[in-house]
Amino acid sequence: MAAADLDRVLDLLRGREGAPPSSIEEARARLEAFAALIEPLAGVRLAPARVGAVPCEWVVAPDAVDDGVLLYLHGGGYGLGSLATHRALVSRLSATTGLPGLTVGYRLTPAHPFPAEMRPHDTGAGANVKKRTRRKLL
């Protein structure tokens, strides 16, 4: 991450106001709003995809090559995060690694309690990507 990018993120975090979120819905909305403040790199191609029943998104830097796939499972403790919340990060990872990134839209708690988020619906995405694209996974 460039120093200017890091400074921008730190300024955004310092500028947050208010009490902690009172619900999972509020926490999700805040994360989505925060993530929307940081754009993916210019020229990155975003394309919706599905791997079996799993919603995914390709995040591909202009110079990425089809040598493999960067499979990205967003953070958030299985309760927060979406395909959109980590787009900017995955765009930078794609540019840095030179690989296309594939983010996975796995199911979130509490609507899908543990261990639902870890069933084959989601965890099979990596194996399906490798099988369907014949690419190595990073």
What does it look like?
With 138 residues, the chain is of the alpha/beta class. 36% of the residues lie in helices and 18% in strands. It has a five-stranded mixed beta sheet with strand order 1-2-4-3-5.
Structural class: alpha/beta
What is the number of helical segments per DSSP (H or I, 4+ residues)?
4
- From the spread of the alpha carbons, the general shape counts as flat
CATH topology: Rossmann fold
Spatial order of the strands forming the largest sheet: 1-2-4-3-5
CATH superfamily: Alpha/Beta hydrolase fold, catalytic domain
Q: Averaged pLDDT, please?
A: 78
Q: Radius of gyration from the CA trace?
A: 16 Å
H and E order: HHEEEHEHE
Helix percentage: 25-40%
Low-pLDDT stretches: none
Number of separate structural domains: 1
**CATH class term:** Alpha Beta
How far apart are the termini?
Answer: 19 Å
Protein traits:
Rossmann fold; alpha/beta; 36% helix; 138 residues; five-stranded mixed beta sheet; flat; 4 helices
List the topology elements.
Layout: H1 3-14, H2 24-35, E1 45-51, E2 54-60, E3 68-72, H3 87-97, E4 101-104, H4 120-133, E5 136-137
Parallel strand pairs: 3-4, 3-5
Antiparallel strand pairs: 1-2, 2-4
Quick summary of this structure?
This protein has 138 residues and is an alpha/beta fold. It is built from 4 helices and 5 strands, in the order ααβββαβαβ. It has one domain (40-137): Rossmann fold (3-Layer(aba) Sandwich).
